[in-house]
Each structure stands twice: as structure tokens, then as C-alpha cells.
Amino acid sequence: MISDNSTAGSNDTAGNNDTAGKSSSNRFRTARRRTALAAGLALALGLGVTAQASAGSPRSVSGKPSDNITRIADFYGAYTDAVTDEGGGKLADELRKHYLTPAFQKELAAWEDKNHADGVLRAQNVPLAWKVTDNGTANYTEAVVTLSWGSETTQLIVDMTRGTHKIFHIGTKGVEAG
Fold first, then answer.
1. Rounded to the nearest 5°, which phi and psi values hold at 23?
2. Strand order in the sheet with 167-172
3. What region, left, alpha or beta, does residue 87 occupy, with left being phi > 0 and alpha being psi -120 to 50 degrees?
């Protein structure tokens, strides 16, 4: 935890009887710093969240590494961050290696050559938001990933193995792209 015990903005602590005001101000700065630290940590860990400080009620996101829907959400969150951030190309490649089966990586590369678009996003640009919804199945996990570009959306079907937690298929909902 980060603690702010400084008296920034005041070199004269003697003779100041307003310690309650300073204490309240320090707690507010400390809370803001904790919020910023938590947001940075969540983004750095690829937790698939958009953290923001607001006057509204606090938001929570939870997940577990053994849950495929969490893993798919983590992948799409980290991947969209990587392709959005300057110099994130190497990270995007590493995320593909970590989350996609080797065979699907080759299939995706062929799809991208043919379609001149990002195969993970099935688009030429990066969405502004994403949502992952469990779509069920018995032998593997199928999720619907909704990518949003303002008022435009695309829904993808993403399939992940249960044992290795690797994505082996991404396709457009209702249309199998190959």
C-alpha cells in the first residue's frame, strides 16, 4: 500500500491547528493514489477491466484462471490494449502465443493474409469496448465476444479447450469465416 505522509504545499506545520482538515486532505490524496495504483495494476496484469475513478458506486470484476470465460475476457482485454498502445505489437504477438493453439495461430495468419484484417478482432481497427458472454458446450468452452465501435458491433464465437485453456477457433457469429 502507498501512504502519503507528506505535507505538500505547506512548509509551516507549527501553529496550524487545522489538523483535521489536513488529515482529511491527506486521506483523500492517499485514496486517489490507491485508486490510480489499483487501476494501473489491473491494466498491467491484463485483468480485462476498464478501471476508472468515479463519484458513482465502485465497480468490481472478479475471475479465476481456471475459468475459461475469465481467460477469454482477459485475453481480449489485454489484446485490445496491446494493439491500441504504441509499440504494443510485440505484446500482441506474445499474447497470441500464450492464448492460442499453435495450429490456430497458423490458421489465423492465413485468414489475416487473405482478409487484410486482424484475425483476433476480425476487423481492420480496434474496438472501443468488448464484452464476453458464456455460450456453453460440454467438451470445450464457447463464448460470444461482442466488440463495439460506438454504435457498430460485431459478435464473434470464440472456442477454448477445457484442459489446456487455449483458444482454437474464432469466427463471426452466424458466419464461419475460413
1. -60, -45
2. 129-134, 140-149, 152-161, 167-172
3. left
- Residues near 74 by beta carbon (within 8 Å), at least 6 away in sequence: 46, 47, 48, 63
Q: Extract the C-alpha cell encoding 72.
A: 477469454
Mean pLDDT, 10 residues at a time, over the chain (178 residues)?
A: 40 43 47 47 47 70 90 96 89 96 97 96 94 91 95 95 95 62
Residue with cell 479465476: 64
| Model pTM above 0.85 | no
What whole-number distance in Å separates Cα of residue 81 and Cα of residue 28? 29
Distance separating alpha carbons of residues 11 and 23, to the nearest angstrom: 16
Question: ∠5-10-4 over CA atoms, to 5°?
Answer: 15
**Gap between the Cα atoms of 85 and 107, Å rounded:** 25
**C-beta separation of 161 from 72 below 8 A:** no
What residues contact residue 122 under an 8 Å CB cut-off, 6+ apart? 147, 154, 156, 170, 172, 177
Q: How many CB atoms lie within 10 A of CB 78?
A: 23
Exposure letters 138-166 (e unless 16+ CB within 10 A, then b)? eeebbbebebeeeeeebebbbbbeeeebb
